[in-house]
Amino acid sequence: MRVAVIGAGRMGSGIAQVFLSAGAHVAVRDPLIDPAPAIGRGLRTAQSKGGGSADEALGRLTVGAVPYDSDLVIEAVPEDPGLKASVLAEVEEQVHDGAVLATNTSSLSITELSAALKRPERFLGMHFFNPVPVQRLVELVVTPATQVLEQVRGYVGLLGKTAVVVNDSPGFATSRLGVLLGLEAIRMVEEGVASADDIDTAMTLGYGYPMGPLRLGDLVGLDVRLAIADHLHARLGPRFEPPELLRWMVARGELGRKTGRGFYQW
Ligand SMILES: NC(=O)c1ccc[n+]([C@@H]2O[C@H](COP(=O)([O-])OP(=O)(O)OC[C@H]3O[C@@H](n4cnc5c(N)ncnc54)[C@H](O)[C@@H]3O)[C@@H](O)[C@H]2O)c1
């Protein structure tokens, strides 16, 4: 199979790596960085854990042009609707009519992005999670026009990952539920119901979550959490209104692990 990945940052290089590991030919296009070193490092790590030959897989990587005969093109450029729409429209012209186009957006409307395309029936969201080689879920986000779901479900199976299917709606399934839980946990700290540590322990030991919602917020970045909450608040209404405590922490630069302080000291 032939896959093209547009944008080779954190997500694009991971997506390229897992398709190479699954035996695909992969072309990667990024105007700013050479993706080969990061992908090579990822493939060598996978090899050391029992994966296939990194050198053999790297032999199937090309950098630059998107091949006309690509089966699947995955866009992973920054989260900017105008940039994504123009990249998708441009690449649609460069591949054959039967190619599938996918976006790795984590928050934008798939329906709105599909307005830029001539073949919206061959387009959907393929939401991978970070780090791509480790995370087992791919959220497939479809519009009423999408006709390539079963084909793409097969591609996810080739990667050894699990697909869930979500109709295009704000926050898809993952952010909508994950952010709601995180916001309520912050409101509980704000109201003095319990400490951050006790709220997280309640969910890890009581409900079997691998990580509590406040620790997860610190890892994701509280500024990122706030931006998603603002987006969902605007689209889905008051139940996503960000708590004052979250705004206040972000304003003070308490963003979680990346600044050394959030609900925890890092
Ligand atoms: N980082 C995450 O945890 C995560 C998780 C799921 C989804 N996403 C989504 O994945 C997408 C990419 O995120 P990321 O974290 O990899 O970003 P990133 O900033 O690490 O990488 C984006 C890459 O796109 C490149 N780029 C910019 N303009 C381009 C163009 N016109 N053509 C080709 N490449 C171009 C940049 O040079 C950069 O290397 C975003 O839509 C983001 O919302 C991110």
TrEMBL record:
Residue ranges occupied by any 3-hydroxyacyl-CoA dehydrogenase NAD binding domain in the UniProt entry: 3-168
Annotated site residues (Important for catalytic activity) in this chain: H127
Residues at which NAD(+) binds: G7, A8, G9, R10, M11, G12, D30, E79, K84, S106, N130, K258
Record pathway: Lipid metabolism; butanoate metabolism
EC annotation from Swiss-Prot or TrEMBL: 1.1.1.157
SUPFAM superfamilies to which the protein is assigned, alphabetical: 6-phosphogluconate dehydrogenase C-terminal domain-like (SSF48179), NAD(P)-binding Rossmann-fold domains (SSF51735)
Any one GO BP annotation for this protein: fatty acid metabolic process
One MF term in the entry's GO annotations: 3-hydroxybutyryl-CoA dehydrogenase activity
Pfam name, any one: 3HCDH
Listed InterPro entries: 3-OHacyl-CoA_DH, 3-OHacyl-CoA_DH_NAD-bd, 3HC_DH_C, 6-PGluconate_DH-like_C_sf, 6PGD_dom2, NAD(P)-bd_dom_sf
Homology family: Belongs to the 3-hydroxyacyl-CoA dehydrogenase family.
Protein name: 3-hydroxybutyryl-CoA dehydrogenase
